[in-house]
Amino acid sequence: MKIRSFITLALLALLAAACGSEAQETVTGDTSTTEESAFTRIVSLNPTATEMLFAIGAGDLVVAVDEFSYYPPEAPVTDLSGWDPNIEAIAGFEPDLVVTESPMEGLDAIDVENHVISAATTLGDIYAQITELGGITGHSDDAATLVTQMQTDIDAVLSSIPEREEALTYYHELDDTLYSVTSTTFIGYVYDLLGLRNVADPADADGAAYGYPQLNEEYLVDADPDVIFLADTRCCAQTAETVAARPGWDQLTAVQEGNIVELDDDVVSRWGPRVVEFIEVAGTAVAGI
After folding, report:
1. How much is the pTM?
2. Is 202 helix (H, G, I), strand (E, B) or coil?
3. What residue ranges define each of the domains in the chain, with the CATH number in brackets?
4. How does pLDDT run across 31-53, given as a tens digit for each residue?
């Protein structure tokens, strides 16, 4: 069920992103980015924003988070929904700021402000969002430090990737029913940074699957990817061994050469501070091929 939630979240994120870059900066009310403008009671209904808030040292301002904001472990998880927010339930936590993935109606009625952190499409988006949250929570310096460290760590990974005459091909698996991603998604963008070519791109050339096509065994055997990235190790208990044991998959180059990379589902699907972990794991694997 978890992967279904991810795909639904991904599609909702695409709809939010379709509103353009303005959605990323939408704030209802006056939330100027000064150290004096810090809020004191924040409700986050956005798992990625929750991770950002704690990463910049603003976790002590967070009084409640949605049911999927279970990282870091100290986040105050509740049964609040980010998909179908309930104003009355939110009001019970007496927030002065609610952070969401898309603009939320009704908060004006309870005199609560709304800051939107929409789905990132580039690393630059992530850095900007962290900076925004730092400004409105009084943690600008912490946010700047985090962004600098992320840039340094990611640059180190990217500089380790060898140049190749022909790009390695890859398949990124979202679940064991073979849902994948294309290069139009943030995940695909990360793999582009690593110099890889996505075998799933032709499966959604018209964009009908919004960048998340479902493939099949025949398609993958024909595509024969050089590398397989498993982002279903938690949801679906998939490993290099279970993939190698699938009927016909022993024909794949990635399986034969042992180029199956096990990823943490949550890390890959939360496009915030832990994107560094995703890039480090994937980049280290690619550099070693």
Report:
1. 0.87
2. helix
3. 2-139 (3.40.50.1980), 161-287 (3.40.50.1980)
4. 444 455 469 999 999 999 999 99
